[in-house]
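Practice problem: predict the structure.
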Amino acid sequence: MSAAELYQRDYYEWTVRNAELLRSGRADEADLANIAEEIEDLGRRERRELLHRLRLLIIVGSRFPAIAPPLAGELQPAKPARAKEDSPRRKPCGTCRESE
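Answer:
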């Protein structure tokens, strides 16, 4: 059975056979036309999946901006932590009078 016929009848066996042929350096025996088509299809599927996931991120990010990661250029420096009530700067110094 030729590689092209195997492609139509048993896809899994076709993949195994062609992988073995390519690994052993016998590319001239491999089903190069269908291999090229499969590689192109794989690229299209991967690109379509990536675009789908990016769309989902954009949709979710627009609905829930608080949990969306910042985009480049939107990063802002962290705000300094608030002083605690018992920090030395917040305690009266003894010579100063606190307002009543």
